[in-house]
Structures are given as C-alpha cells and as structure tokens.
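Protein in question quoted for reference:
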Amino acid sequence: MNTKLLLRSLILILFCIVKANAQEVLTVEDAVKIALENNYEIKIASNNLLIDKTNVSSGNAGMLPKATATIVDNNGIQNISQTRSDGTVNKLDNAKNNSLTYGVGLDWTVFDGLKMFAKMDQLKELQKLGEAQLKLTIITKISDVNATYFDLVQQQQQLSALDSTIVISNQRLTLAQNRFTIGKASKLEVLNAQVDLNTDKVTLLRQKELFTNTKILLNQILARDTKIDFKVVDRIVVDNKLLLAELSALAEKQNPQLETQIINKRVSELQLKQIKAARYPTVKLNTGYNFSDSQSSLGFTTQSSARGLNYGFSASLNLFDGFAQNRNEKISKIQIDNSKIAIDQQNSALNSQLATSYQTYLTNLELIALEEKNEAIAKQNLNITLDKFRIGTITTLEFRTAQLNYVNAKVRYSNAQFQAKLSEIALKELAGNLSF
C-alpha cells in the first residue's frame, strides 16, 4: 500500500514538473526580439524601405540613355491603276505591297537644367524617409511590447496578492468555524467569512481572465499563435536616472517623427530644384542603326532596301506655357514653408510631451517609494490583526478592513511601479532611445 502511494506521488510530482517546464519564461528582451522578427507592421515597413532603396538608381533619376529596338512590318493588297505622263495606263488587281523596317535606336538626355541630379538627391532623401518611418514603426511596436509585457507583470503581482488574501480568508473561515463549534462565535460570523471568501474568489477569477486576455494580446503583437502559454518575470525594474536635458538632446537628434519632418523639408527643396530646371534648355542626343526593305508589285521601283546609321541631337526650351512655370514654383515654395512650419510644430509638441511625461515620471517615482512604505505598514497591521483575531480580541469587520487594506496596498504598489515603467517607456520612445 505504501509502495503504491509513493509511486502515485512520484508520478504526480513528475507531471507537475513537466507541466511547469512546458511554459516558457518569456523575458521582455525575448519578446522584443520576436516582435522584430514577426510583427506584420514592421515587415510591411521593411518592404517599403526596400522599395525606396530600389528606386535609388541613376536610371530612375533619368541619367542613363534609353535604347529601343523596333520592328515595323506593313503589308497591303490593292487594286492599282496608274496613268503615266505619256498616257500609258497600268492596271493590276490584288497588287501586293510590303515594307519591313527594323533597327536599334539610342536616346540620351545630356542636359535638363540639372533636374536629373536633383531627382537623384530626392530619391536618396526618400530612402532616408523610409528608414525614419521604419524606425518609427519599430520604436512604436517595441513600446507596445514593453507596455503590454509589464502590464502582465503587474497583473501577475496582483494575482499573487489575491492568492495570499484567499489563503488568509480561508484561515479566517476555519477560525470562525472552530469558534462557532466551541460556542465562542455566532453562525453569522461564519457566514460573513464565507461570503468574503467567495468575494475574493470572484475577484481572483476576474483577474485571471484579464491576465489570460492580456497574454493573448501580447501574442498577437508578437505575431505568433495566440494559444502559446508563457510566464513573465515577477519584478518591474524602473530606470530612475533619466534626466530631462539629456532626453531633450536625444529627441532633437533622433526622434523619428521630427526626423521625418526634416527630411520632408529637404524633399520639398529638391522638388523646387526640379521645377526650376524647366527654365533651362533640354539637350538630347540620338542615334540608331536601321534596316529597311520594301517591295511593290507595280510602279517604277518594285523593290528597295537600305541600311545605315543615323545620328543627331535635339534641343528644346520652354518660351511660354501660360505662366505654369511661375505657378509651379510658387506652389513649391509654399510647400517648403509648410514643411518648415511642420518642423516647428513637431518641435513644440515634442518638447511639450517630454516635459509633461517627465513630470509624470517624477511623480510616479515618488509614488513607488510611498506605496512601498504603505505596503510594509499594511502587512505589519495585517499580521497584528490576524493574531488578535485568533484570540478573539477584534471584530471580523476590523479584520476584513485590515485584510483589504493590505491587498489594496500591494495592488497600489504594483500599479505605481507599472505606471512609472510606462512613463520611462514613453520618455525613451519620445527620445528615440528605446532599446531595440
């Protein structure tokens, strides 16, 4: 009998170990890595950047010549009547005529008012714009991953607090039942203890539901199977050494939204250069080698063929286009002014967000210290209250108040850490310094 019991115990322990190992411990660094590899929005932004890189080429800027191969074959069947100057008339029904021309041509714009060089520079700036947009997407997703991850850590801490309060509520119910049995307490005390225990269980179930749903949300952000189960770390470590001056300096250099506005201004300036290029002449070189062959059933020449090289150049200059050139330049200059305004607006918004977020960050750091002390006091108060409750010197209402105060203190402490972490993440996101 003892051998069977021992065997069952070993099997149960082994099952628990296997089940525990089946859950991966997911760190925030691992979560960020998975998001960078899998997230759909990051993949789309990466592909858009590849498009921008592909567009940066001399041919796309119009610097290279264009070679074209052509072939034209015309055939006809006609009833022909010809009257010559001496009065001779020639007639032929179903006369066949055909001509064949084929060859290779080359066209090259050698000067267009330096438009092609401005276009090349603009393509390079558009690539930088794609890089800035990819960086913005990555930082935003890393921020989402961090916020969701540490939300899970906070919820896990709250689950731990609720588990401990259920243990205490069970102890209270047991004490109430024992006291009722020996006649030192009324049935009402037992019923109240049972109601409070059930209330705690309901709260725990709701918290478990929220915890599970947040896990699903994080899996969705990581673009992996939402059914994957995992554990998170049990601590929230807040960087308490952030300085506003350093954050502002970093934001001015590497905030992706500000960087995007600056690049947009450069793109607008290069667009104006391309428009101004229309004031200069355009010079093109052309050459080609062609073959031609024609046959006619009736006429002075029934067959002819030719082949040879042709070359030349063309030049054009816009003299008057209904003032479209002036209009386009004015519009382009206005767009440059708008881009300057957008930079100033982004700078103002960025400085405002940094200032408010930093103040929130400082407040949350103070709250962490305060709530940590409150938790320690609430725990000490609960221990004293529990001892008094065991000997029957306090009422159940006083005990329940101390119990709830302790749970609320733990929840507030956990929430203070989480809010401070969110403030840290927001500040680093604004500074463009959120670690990849």
Q: What stands out?
A: The CA atoms of residues 316 and 367 lie 73 Å apart. The chain has two domains: 23-56+112-281+322-430, 68-110+283-316. The longest strand covers residues 89-111. DSSP finds nine helices and six strands in the chain.
